[in-house]
Write a structure and sequence with these properties.
Layout (H helix, E strand, L loop, with lengths): L2 H9 L6 H13 L5 H8 L8 H13 L3 E5 L5 E5 L6 E4 L5 E2 L3 H13 L12 E4 L2 H5 L3
Parallel strand pairs: 3-5
Antiparallel strand pairs: 1-2, 3-4
Helix pairs in contact: 2-3, 2-4, 3-4
Length: 141
């Protein structure tokens, strides 16, 4: 794990354990969404004896300090990712792929909600758009 990643954990007041460090690294380096079970499968060879319950506790500790975001996608499992910026999720109804539009779109959505909500202070936004990804749409022609 790189020094900057450990510093990111320490700056947020996270006690750096080997389990948390490896889980954080998997999320940051992949940039993908994973269920807790998928994270566990990716780190269990490096950390023999690691229990799935420890993965859940580690993810929740990282989430509590804002380093990890979780999403409950419609009709899907709870997934975790390194929190980078506000971003909507695009979920393909055909293949299940999860992707993101340009980051600016998320900020524009948040701004629109904040200005049009009669003074309601929006602090967090989870947006899931369902549709068909370009790869699956191409197969429909």
């Amino acid at each position: 794990m790189g020094k900057e990643q450990i510093n990111a954990l320490q700056e947020r007041g996270v006690r750096v354990t080997p389990q948390r460090a490896h889980i954080w690294r998997v999320l940051v380096e992949s940039g993908e969404h994973f269920t807790a079970e998928e994270v566990w499968k990716r780190v269990r060879d490096t950390l023999p004896g690691l229990e799935l319950s420890t993965v859940y506790r580690s993810l929740e500790a990282l989430q509590a300090v804002g380093l990890v975001a979780d999403s409950r996608l419609p009709e899907g499992p709870r997934v975790f990712e390194a929190r980078t910026a506000l971003h909507p999720h695009l979920v393909c109804e055909s293949c299940g792929e999860i992707s993101h539009p340009e980051p600016e779109i998320g900020w524009r959505l948040l701004e629109a909600l904040s200005t049009g909500s009669g003074g309601f202070e929006v602090r967090e936004l989870h947006v899931v758009a369902k549709g068909v990804c370009p790869g699956c749409a191409g197969g429909r022609e």
